[in-house]
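Lab channel / #folding
Pinned by the channel admin:
"Please post every new chain as: sequence first, then the structure tokens as a reply. Keep commentary short and put observations after the output so the thread stays searchable."

First post following the new format, from NK:
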Amino acid sequence: MNEELFERAQRSIPGGVNSPVRAFGSVGGTPRFLVRAAGPYVVDSEGAEYVDLVASWGPAILGHAHPEVVRAVQRAAEQGLSFGASTPAETELAELIIERVAAAGTRPVERVRLVSTGTEATMTAIRLARGATGRDLLVKFSGHYHGHSDALLAEAGSGVATLALPGSAGVPAAVAANTLVLPYNDVAAVEAAFAEHGDSIAAVILEAAAANMGVVPPAPGFNAEVHRIAREHGALVILDEVLTGFRVGGAGWWGLENSDGAEYTPDLFTFGKVVGGGMPLAALGGRAEVMELLAPRGPVYQAGTLSGNPVAVAAGLTTLRLADDAVYSHLDATADRIADAVSAALSLEGVAHGIQRAGSLFSVVFGDAPAPTDYAAVKRQEAWRYPPFFHAMLRQGVSLPPSVYEAWFVTAAHDDAALQRIDAALPHAARAAAEAVAPE
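Reply from TO:
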């Protein structure tokens, strides 16, 4: 059934998928077509059930089809799917985002604009930064993924890393020339870029903790140093928390790093995934003087027919309200348990590896090299061990991200029964990784 569905899809959809990583190009084989999900499980078109460690790439923080989220969506849908006008719930969600980030001790987000995708959020944030500074250049870091807008595909992670692409065809050279790509976790490279181009740089954009080239956390103090350097040259900083925001903690990665007092304060944040509870919704936020430059108050234009869609807002509001301290404690403990089990199974089979962590996000790096701190080091791993590991887990009923360059996600619904199924699958997967043969 999965094979038939994939063959059919390829006759009407480019590559048979609507997002490249779903095609299993990095791991080989036929992608699974999912038909339903509940709690920590997903079910494919053939009726096979899997313990899920993708979690819709992050949004399913409470588990799939959480009853309260589903009821909220149903109630909202009964009132209308889309109005093309403002709703009271949009304001409630914006206020909740502001409150959650402020809980870390300061109030870096004073205004919020809702959009439909993480790509749209980062694209708008960059336009806003350019409008605020009157400058054109953008600094990003190799391996960081901020969506598929033209300026951000240079040396990107996620699907670009999975497909081993340097960027994308169709991006004009003039657009690419406005993006400076620096090695991650390299403060000296940031200093040098600003020494040469400082008066032309509008903004630095960076993932709060890199999670689109596998998980690579920022070196201690790196994010703060980036902010310091940008401030000295009048550039803005955009902290991309599309993946980490409200996933690794109640106030995101920024909240974790600044829990004892703000070491750095971004000008703009971008949020996605969890903030929409699994529905198409994202947001950007920041201090009022910058955010008020957006139309209709200011000259920086952004609009969206479905921005603040009432059904998506209902899912996001309910998810955030339910994501309390107990949920985050469970996520951390579950990530600890699975990461330790993965490492133990691989060690037992003599497979050199490392586990990379950023809060409850984690990934496996194959090989005996030191823990990677940048994209170049990540790409030097023994990535050929991952496809057999992945497929062995899949045969044993555990669904992992179909690329070694993606983070693993746990949910509040992963209970002992689900964890035991993962434990039972790991010896098979570790043995497959140990027996894998390097390509010539």
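NK: DSSP finds 15 helices and 13 strands in the chain.
TO: also worth noting, Confidence is low (pLDDT under 50) at residues 156-166.
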